[in-house]
Design brief:
It holds the Pfam family MMR_HSR1. This is G domain-containing protein. GO terms for molecular function: GTP binding; GTPase activity. It contains ten helices and six strands, in the order H-E-H-E-H-E-H-E-H-E-E-H-H-H-H-H. Helices cover about 45% and strands about 15% of the residues. A hairpin with a 2-residue loop joins strand 5 and strand 6. Helix 6 (about 180-185) packs across helix 7, helix 7 packs across helix 8 (about 215-225) and helix 9 crosses helix 10. The chain is elongated, with a radius of gyration of 20 Å. It has a six-stranded mixed sheet. It folds into two domains: about 5-165, Rossmann fold (3-Layer(aba) Sandwich); about 195-260, no CATH class. With about 280 residues, it is an alpha/beta fold.
Length: about 280
């Protein structure tokens, strides 16, 4: 599943990235590994990158600290944001401004005049780029909605004198070699529902929740009053469907995914940092 507008946007983005000075890479704080584009490093060709993990409100403090330490060990300082509430935006603005100052200082050292520094904001669909950009610009120029594929074209705007911003549609890899990553995107609503089977994805979520120390079978049992301890994800969905949805497994699966996305099981990351 690779919508035509994303294929075109990828071609356009690669051309525009040749012109930018700084890349702000947005990822979903719940799944930082799965929302890292495998080709981005190749596209940006060594340009300065600012890594942003959005939706910090949807993970725990322990998750945040673990991921901050991991990226710091990779010499990739990370900024955590909540685009809906504006948290972290000031820090992001300062970081982008600092990079812009450094770039123009180097230009002056070479006898060149300062110019506007071009910043591109890139990331997967539905991870909050539009909300972040509206906050950076202090005005609404991007439609923000809780579904993938809202932004359909590249668009330049000015944050302030000396800093220009490029917004891009969400860009997915042409194909997912890691199907587990694709399922995490589906769980977090970072790809369109037409690209996956709801019951299959929800069954994987059940299994994942049961393994997570921050969740466990108890959060499912408490929520649906159906014991989740000793059954597979698929069988658990069937039990919930029989108890609450007249046997409709898809309806049970849809409810379970919505409950996760709304924090009904608590707030925590689905991924832990890779072991060193």
């Amino acid at each position: 599943w690779y919508p035509g507008h994303i294929a075109k946007a990828e071609r356009d983005l690669k051309e525009q990235l040749l012109l930018v000075d700084v890349v702000v890479e947005l990822r979903d704080a719940r799944i930082p590994s799965a929302t890292g584009h495998p080709d981005l490093e190749k596209w940006i060709r060594g340009k300065k990158r600012i890594l942003v993990l959005n939706r910090e409100d949807m993970i725990s403090t322990a998750d945040r600290n673990a991921w901050a330490s991991y990226f710091a060990s990779k010499d990739m300082p990370v900024i955590f944001t909540n685009g809906q509430q504006g948290k972290g935006i000031m820090k992001l603005t300062r970081q982008a401004g600092s990079v812009a100052s450094t770039i123009n200082s180097k230009r002056r050292d070479k006898g060149l005049l300062p110019r506007s520094v071009r910043v591109a904001v890139v990331g997967f669909p539905n991870i909050g780029k539009s909300s972040i950009i509206n906050r950076l610009l202090k005005r609404k120029i991007c439609e923000a909605a809780p579904r993938p594929g809202v932004t359909r074209q590249l668009r330049w705007s000015t944050i302030h004198d000396g800093l220009d911003l490029l917004d891009s549609p969400g860009i997915l890899p042409m194909k997912f070699d890691d199907q587990a990553a694709a399922v995490k995107l589906a769980i977090c609503n970072d790809i369109g529902q037409e690209s996956y089977e709801v019951s299959g994805v929800a069954a994987v979520l059940v299994e994942r929740l049961k393994r997570l120390p921050a969740a466990g079978a108890k959060v499912l049992t408490s929520r649906y009053r159906v014991d989740a301890e000793d059954c597979s994800g698929e069988y658990y969905l069937e039990l919930v469907a029989q108890k609450l949805f007249q046997g409709d497994v898809n309806q049970a699966a849809t409810r379970l995914l919505l409950d996760f996305r709304r924090g009904k099981f608590g707030w925590f990351a689905l991924e832990s940092p890779p072991s060193s």
